[in-house]
Amino acid sequence: MIVWHFFRIFVHLMAGMLTCACQFPFSSPERRERLIRRWSQQLLAICTVDVAFRDASEGAVAETALIVSNHVSWLDIFVINTLHPCHFVAKADIRSWPLVGWLCEQAGTIFLARGKQREVRRIYEGLVHQIQAGKRIAFFPEGTTAAQGTVLPFHANLFEAAIEAKVMVQPFVIRYTDASGQFHAAADFIGEMTFVDSLRAILKAPRMTAELIRLPAISTEGAHRRDVAQQARSAVMQALGVFAET
């Protein structure tokens, strides 16, 4: 059975590459979003991951905002894309992943090399222009994945882009649960685990549900990036009901 799932994923990845190569160059931004949303939904279905969206924003939703979320797995990008196809800021390592890295790049992912301050500045300036142009930008401020049950410190640098672009920050929470509503261990993508290791664990495990929760948007007017980052992290921690790594 797992071999069949791997084969289906391979075929789906190839179909995605054909879509990027043959349809994206001739598609409007709106059609691209529809294609990305549908492809992401289909990928998650093959991986036996259901998506459940909950709006806990209490009406505080921003039309134009910088989207942030906790980070559990490579699945997170595709879970968010089922609701809002975004241009993600992701670690440069993903670019080297077979097939998936190329697809992420074609979908507009912005790759950021770790520890390179000049690179951070270049990415930051580009984000401001893209946000002001109306593009939907998202990133994971923890900077890496964390096991469910923890929330790592939020890096504040890229929050400055929302402040300069004069837009709000829209936090989301992602959690993966089993049939009993508990954290699903197969979703964790941590340590030395490779993409293939993670995919194998997900396909061998019982079906999981990816819960995507939208929280109230956070104003950046007159704020400092560290305060906005801390406010976003606190909101995510409260929604998850988990402790934090310091």
Automatic annotation (TrEMBL):
Domain Phospholipid/glycerol acyltransferase: 65-177
UniProt entry tagged with the keyword Lipid biosynthesis: yes
Biological source species: Undibacterium oligocarboniphilum
SMART domains for this protein: PlsC (SM00563)
PANTHER family xrefs: 1-ACYL-SN-GLYCEROL-3-PHOSPHATE ACYLTRANSFERASE, 1-ACYL-SN-GLYCEROL-3-PHOSPHATE ACYLTRANSFERASE-RELATED
Keywords: Acyltransferase, Lipid biosynthesis, Lipid metabolism, Transferase
Pathway in which the depicted protein is active: Lipid metabolism
Taxonomic superkingdom: Bacteria
Listed name of the protein: 1-acyl-sn-glycerol-3-phosphate acyltransferase
